[in-house]
C-alpha cells in the first residue's frame, strides 16, 4: 500500500467515524484539543496525522484503535534519506542525550517554532516546509509511548534569547519546555548559563542514543546533512563532550526557573 493511498484511507476512516458519531469537525477538534483547521486538512489528505492525533480520535470516536493501526502503516513520511537511519534509532532508543547551542532540540519544538526554522532562508518552500514540519512533530511521539526513553537535553542559554518567530512563538515555545518536563518525568532539561563563556559545546550540537541492545551511537548535524557516528572511538569522544557540557549546565530545577524567567521576558 503506497503512502498516498494510506493517507487517503486514514482520511476516509476518520470522516466515516466522525460522521457515525454525529460530530462536526469543530466538535471533534474541541474534544481532542487540536484545531478544526488541522482536522479538516487531515480529512482532505493534505496533512499527515501524528500518532497522538490518531489515538485521541480513536478515544473520542470509539473506533477501537483503528486509526492508530492505520497510522502505524504511514511510517515517518518524507524523511530526508540521510536522516532515515537515525530516525529509526531515535524511535527505538532507551535513552537520548541531546546538546544544542543555537535552537531548541527537534523533539521539543512546537509547530510554529519548527515552521519558522524550516522555512527560514527559503531552502524549503510551500508543501516541502509543511511535510518536514509534520515529520518533525511526528517524531516527538517517541516521548508519548508507553515506555518513553530517558531524554536529557542540555541547551545553551542563548537558545532562550534567540528570537525565532517573534515574541509570541518564543513565549509559547519556552512554556512548552516547562510543560513537557512537568508532564513527562523522563524528560529533563539543563541550561548552560551564558556566564560560562567558552566551553566545548560551542563546537557544535550532537545527540547520543542508547539502543535497546548494542553500543551507543551518536548523531551530528550540519548545513548539508547529518552524520551517524558509530565507531567506538568517535562515540567515546562525543560522550566525553557530553560529560563536559553537562558539567557546565545548571541543575534541572534551576534550569526550569531560568526558562520561566526567559518566557516572562518574551511577553
Q: Helicity level, as a percent range?
A: 40-55%
Q: Give the number of DSSP strands.
A: 6
pLDDT averaged residue by residue:
88
Order of helices and strands: HHHHHHEHHEHHEEEEHH
- Helical stretch tally: 12
Spans where pLDDT lies below 50 across 5 or more residues = none
Structural class: alpha/beta
Task: Note the gap between the termini.
Answer: 48 Å
- Approximately what portion of the residues adopt beta-strand conformation? 5-15%
Overall morphology: globular
Work out the oligomeric state of the chains in this entry. Answer: single chain
List the helices and strands and how they pair.
Layout: H1 3-20, H2 25-32, H3 36-43, H4 51-61, H5 66-74, H6 84-92, E1 95-100, H7 111-119, H8 127-139, E2 150-156, H9 158-161, H10 167-183, E3 187-192, E4 206-210, E5 217-220, E6 227-229, H11 232-248, H12 252-265
Please provide a written account of the structure.
With 267 residues, the protein is an alpha/beta fold. It is 51% helix and 12% strand. Strands 3-2-1-4-5-6 form a 6-stranded mixed beta sheet, sandwiched between helices. A hairpin with a 6-residue loop joins strand 5 (217-220) and strand 6. Helix 10 (167-183) runs antiparallel to helix 12. The model has no long low-confidence stretch (mean pLDDT 88).
Concise synopsis of the structure shown:
With 267 residues, this protein is α/β, with parallel strands linked by helices. The longest helix is centred in the N-terminal third of the chain and has 18 residues, at 3-20. The chain is built from 12 helices and 6 strands.
